[in-house]
Amino acid sequence: MTDFERELGGSIALGAETARGGARRRMLGAIAGIPPWAGAIIGIVILIAVWWLVAATLFHVTGSVPTPWQVARHLAGALVDPVYWEAIGATGGAALWGYVWGNLIAFFLAFIVLVAPWFDGLATQLAVVCSCIPITAIAPIVTLLSHPGSRATSIFLAALSVIFTTVVGSLLGLRAASPTQLDVISAYGGGRLTQLVKVRFTAALPSIMAALKIAAPAAFLGSVLGEYFLIGVDKGLGIMLLAAQASANSVSLWTLALISGGVAGLAYWIIGLVGRLVSPWSTGEQR
Amino acid sequence: MSLSTTMIATQDPAGAPGLATGINIQGLTKTFSSGRKTVSALGNIELGTKKDSFLSLLGPSGCGKSTILRILAGLETPTSGTTAINGTSSAEVQRSHEIGVAFQDAALLPWRTVYKNIRLPLEVAGITPEPGLIEDLIDLVGLTGFEHAKPAQLSGGMRQRVSIARCLVVQPSIMLLDEPFGALDDMTRQRMNVELQRIWSEKPATTLMVTHGIAEAIFLSDVVAVMTPRPGSIAELVEIDLPRPRTPEIMRSPEFHAYHDRISEILFGAHGGAGTDD
């Protein structure tokens, strides 16, 4: 394992760790003496105050940082404007396809490692390559290879963005079962397949779900970025960002940034929710 | 070193097959190799016990007691030598589903309930449990009412009881226990030993327990095999001739203390104070 990979593995493990942190959150809240949601609200209020201050002082003349009020008004208009919803749908759809393909490829790599453990080094190398290739360099190549009007580049970048985390998370998960748990299966006459079915697959779920959770916003980011290179496509958040930049429409840019962040955050939250449903034991919740 | 033979165990199983109807270990050695280094974990173990007797392996950590247990359970292969329990080899024993194991780590599956954790060995063996079997076991280990609890909701002692019930669910004629209560606090451990003694007395099985608690070994066993440090070998067999069923009071009797002193002497005295953990 490379240091880089270990680091990322660590951060995924951390995700799995914090996923069981109901008690931990309560503890942190207890230290500050306030409930956790109050902390979140205070954070948002401070953020908006600083934003407003910066907009009203430093960028008062150029207007490249609009005030929260301007953005909020624009956002309210955008949320009832079908153009924005079509853009979210187009970009989100490409992200979803990329997410599915990328994860399928990652699971396939992890599966090969499962069958042939010597493939471990090669699989992680491939995953590292996927995360190291500058996607802005590979995007034009994909665009040249695909038909005008297709969203191939968006889907490709989204897929590329998720492979690494899912490979590392899956490999981490397949090592999650304790040797004693596997010994118990062997002692009662179970083979490798029984160990897999009864223990290792289920033991792998928490870290796989943690990786999938991190991968969801990454896929969306890849999809938005991919639209910068698309030819013959006129819908998508990335394309609207390009247009807003060209016309120096800062309010629109900030609105689009907020929408993108919102969609990515929503994806993260939903996958996290699914993760808690499929592996409730990792949260320490009593069910 | 003289070979000791008692009424129910022997260090010469080939010469006294009548005393090796339970555990039968002949010429057993095990070397582990990592890179160019090879470490000899076990040096020529000869050991036999009668069927349905309770044997404890007692010795300093690293003396290979767990390795013997793992070889008997078919989890490791011996470098040389043969092992058999109740007349069948370890591989056959594994396939016959007559073996129950429990480790220091309860190793329960956190996503399964107590009931389903206990059922696991039967699922692996492809056996449908007789109606009431698992309920009876839960009752036997005193966990009635916790059938549908997850391991995370149980205390360490309760988890270890589940692990004992899981060991018993195959109705084993052989039990292999690797420091089953080693991770528990002293009070819980003593209570668990009393329970294990009761359970074992109700349904005897050829049992091998690995431990480094002297009192625990005397309390539970018919015979204690005291081992020397690496490469592990058996220093002496001590037959424990205390009446059953045994109660905690017996631990305050002079006979019990005599056994304790004798085993301590073998462990710490005769071998220049071989290091022990506790």
Automatic annotation (TrEMBL), chain A:
Membrane-crossing residue ranges in chain numbering: 28-54, 99-119, 126-146, 152-174, 210-231, 251-271
The entry's keywords: Cell membrane, Membrane, Transmembrane, Transmembrane helix, Transport
Membrane association type: Multi-pass membrane protein
Ranges for domain ABC transmembrane type-1: 102-275
Subcellular location(s) of the protein: Cell membrane
Protein name per its UniProtKB record: Taurine ABC transporter permease TauC
Organism of origin: Gryllotalpicola kribbensis
Automatic annotation (TrEMBL), chain B:
SMART domains named in the record: AAA
Classification via InterPro entries: AAA+_ATPase (IPR003593), ABC_transporter-like_ATP-bd (IPR003439), ABC_transporter-like_CS (IPR017871), ABC_transporter_ATP-bind (IPR050166), P-loop_NTPase (IPR027417)
Entry-linked PROSITE patterns: ABC_TRANSPORTER_1, ABC_TRANSPORTER_2
ABC transporter domain location: 23-254
A Gene Ontology molecular function term of the record: ATP binding
Coiled coil (residue ranges): none
Signal peptide: none
Keywords linked to the UniProt accession: ATP-binding, Nucleotide-binding, Transport
Protein name as it appears in the record: ABC transporter ATP-binding protein
UniProt source species: Gryllotalpicola kribbensis
